[in-house]
Amino acid sequence: MKRILITVLLCMAMAAQAQWYNGWSAKTGLVLSLHLTDSLPELYSPMQSEAPLPVSQSSRRGDTLRIECSSLNLKITLTPRDGDLVGTWRQGFLREDITFEASDTIFLMRRPQTPQPPYAFDEETIVADYTDSQGNAVHLEGTLTYPRGDGRYPCLVLVSGSGQQNRDEELFFHKPFLVLADYLASRGIATLRYDDRGVGASTGVLDSADTRLFAEDAEAMFKAVQGNRHVDRKRLGLGGHSEGGAIAPMVAARNRDVKFVVMLAGQGCSGLDVMMQQNEAIYRAAGLGESLLAERLACMRELFAMPQGATLDEYRAVIKRHTAELTPAQVDSIGLGRGAAAQVKQQLDSRWMQTFLKLNPAEWLPKVKCPMLALNGSTDCQVVARPNQARIRELTKHRAECRELPGLNHLFQHSATGAPADYVKIEETMAPEAMQAVAEWVLSLRK
User: Fold this and answer.
1) Are 440 and 311 in a shared domain?
2) CB within 8 A of 269, min separation 6: which ones?
3) Angstrom distance (rounded) from CA 341 to CA 320
4) Domain enclosing residue 325, as ranges
5) Helix, strand or coil for residue 322?
6) How far, in whole angstroms, is CA 29 from its chain's centroid?
7) Could you tell me which of 259, 125, 116, 120 has the C-alpha nearest to residue 188?
8) What is the layout of strands, in order, in the sheet containing 33-35?
9) Fewer C-beta within 10 Å: the chain N or C terminus?
10) Per-residue model confidence as pLDDT tens digits over 30-63
C-alpha cells in the first residue's frame, strides 16, 4: 500500500532544564530536532543534514513557547504538561497537535539489528533486463545473499511494499530486507532483494507503473536468479511485504516455477476494503471517537468512489458535506482540513492508486497451487490482520498456512498500538519471532 506520510520528530529543551524532548507526528515524513540555547533555539533535521535549520524568531509568554522558521513556513507552539511538552505545529496547510516526551538526549536513530560488514554471509549482484508489457525497457539490480560456501540453498526472492524503495526496503533507517536476509542466511536460506525500478541501480518508467507492472518486475528478477549456482531452483520461492505480499502470489498463480510463497502483511481483501480498514485502524489507534471516525470513513468511501477526472471543486464539495457540522478542530482531527482535498485528489488520480483500489486477490489466490505462508501482525494498522487472513483462508480453501503474530505492527516490529507514527521511534527493525517463523516454514518444505 501507499505508505502513509509518517513521522515528525521534534526534540526540545527548556533552557533552564537543559533537557531534550522528543515528539512525533503522523502527518509528515520529516524528522526535526530542536534545542533551546541562551539565544535562538537550534533546529535540526537530523535525517537530512547535520547543519542547523534557520530559526527566525522565538518568544515566550508565561509557560507558552513559540518558535518560528519563516523560510520553512514552520511555527511551533508548546507548553509544559506532566513533565512533557504539548502543543501544535504548523507548516503551510498542515496543522497538528503534538506531544514531546522528555528525554536525556537528542533523538538518535538506533537500529541495532542492522548487520554491519564484514558480513557473516556471501553475496553477489543479480541483474535483469527486460521489456515490460507497456513496451518500456527495465533494468533491475539486486543482491543475492547466501550462506558461506558453495552449496545450493533454498531461496526467497523478496518483493517490497508500496512506494519506490531500495533493495533493503529502507524506511526511517530501518532495513528490514537486509535484516531478514542476514537472519535467513544464518539458517541456511538464500535471499534475493532488489532495488525497485527508479531507485538505486534499477531503472524503468514510473508514471504509468502500478501493482501489476511491479509484478512483472518481480517475475523478471525471479527468472534471473533461477539458474544461479547457489540457488536450489526446486526450493525457490517468492516472498513479499505489504504490496509485495499481493505480488508474490500474483506471480505464483501464473508461474509454476515458484515453489512456495511467503506473504508478509499481505492482503486477502480487495484494495478498496484494505484502504477502508486502514483508515479505520489508524484513526482508531490515534484515539478518535466513534462519531468522528464514522464521519471520516463515510467521507473517504465517497472520495474513493469519485470518478477519474473529477475536479478539485468536486472533491472539496464531498469533504464540505461531511464536515459542515464539525468544528475546525474536529475537521483537523479527522484529517480533512485545509488542503486535504488537493492531497486526496493527487493520490487518487495516480494510476497506481486507481489500480490498487480495484485489486481483488480472488483473481489469483485460488490459482496458487504451491505452499503458502501468510503472516500478519495483530496490531498492523495498514493491512489489518483478521479480515485479511480470513479472506486468504477462504480464497485458498485453507491451503495457506495463516498466522497472526501477537503484538506486531505492519513492519513486524513489537508495537502496542501499531500506529505508523511509531515506526521511526521503535529501535527494533523486525521481530525475531517473525523471522523465525519464515525460516522454520521454508526449511520444513520438501524438495
Assistant:
1) no
2) 277, 361, 387, 388, 391
3) 10
4) 271-355
5) helix
6) 11
7) 120
8) 33-35, 42-44, 52-53
9) C
10) 667 777 777 777 777 777 677 787 889 888 888 8
253 touches 368 (CB < 8 A): yes
Contact yes or no for 331/316 (Cβ under 8 A): no
Q: At what angle do helices 243-252 and 211-225 cross, to 10 degrees?
A: 60
Residue 110 inside a domain? The answer is no
Query: 158 in a domain, yes or no?
Result: yes
Q: What is the CA 436 to chain-centroid distance, rounded?
A: 21
Question: CB within 8 A of 173, min separation 6: which ones?
Answer: 47, 109, 111
**What residues does 69 pair with on adjacent strands?**
74
Phi, psi at 63, each rounded to 5°? -90, 0
Pairing of the two strands 261-264 and 190-194: unpaired
Residue 9 has pLDDT above 70, yes or no: no
Domain-located, residue 190: yes
Task: Note whether residue 2 is domain-resident.
Answer: no
pLDDT tens for each residue of 282-302: 999 989 999 999 999 999 999
Stretch 192-215: mean pLDDT? 96
224 to each of 49, 210, 368, how far by Cα in Å? 38, 21, 21
Tell which of 329, 355, 381 closes a domain: 355
